[in-house]
Amino acid sequence: MSSFKRKTSTKQGENPSGTKLLPGSSSVLIASTGIPSLDDILGGGLPLTCLQVILAPDAHTGYGELVQKYFLSQGLASGQDICVIHDHPRNFVEGSMWLPVSSAHAADDDQEEKTEGDDAKIKIAWRYEQMKKFQTTVTSSDQSGDNFHKVFDLTSKMPALVIDNAVAKKQLTFLDIPSLEERPIRRVLEQINELLGPEETEPSVRKPLRICVPSFGAPVWGDVEPKDLCYFLYTLRSMLQRHRHACASVSLPSYLSEESWGGPGWINKLGWFSDACISLSAFSANPSLSAIFPSYHGFVHIHSLPAPLALVPPSDKYSSLRGLSSSGENNLAFKCMRKRLVFETLHLDLEGGVSERRTT
């Protein structure tokens, strides 16, 4: 019997605050978007070094910016560094949601859903009453000591004291959009490059950095053309790949999120220039869809998913909502309740049969 023994460390280093390892990987760290169901769609969370693009083509809603605020609030609550690029960054942060006042408030929406379910309850055979309830989304839990997932309350605004403390500790950085004479896109990319610091060749021990860019390409950015937007996304993504401690989330205005603005294949291009690209197509512009799907506020369309150091996105294997482990991929939808935003599998209401699940 050989006496050779492999030298291994008995204790692995702790992951940076608010991060954990990507499922199936021993080296890729992920950060939460602040929405557990969106994390599930991404394969567990948004990997560091990756760029996420959120599209919201409906001009009457602000779901794209709402996702950005979740991304921002999760970073602050987890003790990570945040950089907000906006024409009024302070106002944008002040409008973000925050943690519920008490733990009892965190379960209010669950109780609300239960009440709605009780109202619509129908009599069934007694042998089926103890069966597990049909689930359309993943559960969200805020365990003590767990900084990866925090439960946020849309009715609670971020306290000014939290913002002031974060700015004083340089945890929160504001970048105003430069004037049009300074070529704002190139100038912002230069500022991001300075903020990221020198290129990293070894696994980073730095505090994770989240870069939040709401409404990129809005009129304050000047006359943005498709090539300018592609250049910004491509350059930002290249920067992130050289810095293992950072990730970014960019949302586009409604008119930039439509195929007609950039020409044929525009949405596909946005998916190619980003690691994750998701559209939130609200029903507000189409009353007939609201009548057909009264339980939802819009469809979720996936254009690309992060696959760091892999050929296939981990989401294909680990996402419960997408359901690729079964016969086909589930259609997805979202709804914004009083206290939270949720992504769910799309199914018909009682009129069409509660058990019917359509796949693409």
Q: Topology, please?
A:
Layout: E1 19-21, E2 29-31, H1 36-42, E3 46-47, E4 51-55, H2 63-77, E5 81-85, H3 89-94, E6 97-98, H4 103-106, H5 108-119, E7 153-157, H6 160-168, E8 172-175, H7 184-196, E9 209-213, H8 226-241, E10 246-251, H9 259-262, H10 266-272, E11 276-282, H11 287-292, E12 298-304, H12 315-318, E13 332-336, E14 341-345
Parallel strand pairs: 4-10, 4-11, 5-8, 5-9, 9-10
Antiparallel strand pairs: 1-2, 2-3, 6-7, 11-12, 12-13, 13-14
Helix pairs in contact: 7-8
Record keyword descriptors for this entry:
360 residues; alpha/beta; Rossmann fold; nine-stranded mixed β-sheet; three-stranded antiparallel β-sheet; 12 helices; 14 strands
Q: How many independent structural domains?
A: 1
CATH topology: Rossmann fold
Which class of secondary structure composition applies to the elements?
alpha/beta
**N-to-C CA distance:** 56 Å
What strand line-up does the widest sheet have?
8-5-9-10-4-11-12-13-14
Oligomeric composition of the shown chains: single chain
Could you give a short description of this structure?
With 360 residues, the chain is an alpha/beta fold. The chain is built from twelve helices and 14 strands.
Structural account:
With 360 residues, this protein is α/β, with parallel strands linked by helices. The protein has a single domain, classed as 3-Layer(aba) Sandwich (Rossmann fold), CATH 3.40.50.300. The protein has twelve helices and 14 strands. The chain has helices at residues 36-42, 63-77, 89-94, 103-106, 108-119, 160-168, 184-196, 226-241, 259-262, 266-272, 287-292, 315-318, and strands at 19-21, 29-31, 46-47, 51-55, 81-85, 97-98, 153-157, 172-175, 209-213, 246-251, 276-282, 298-304, 332-336, 341-345. A hairpin with a 7-residue loop joins strand 1 (19-21) and strand 2 (29-31). Helix 7 (184-196) runs parallel beside helix 8.
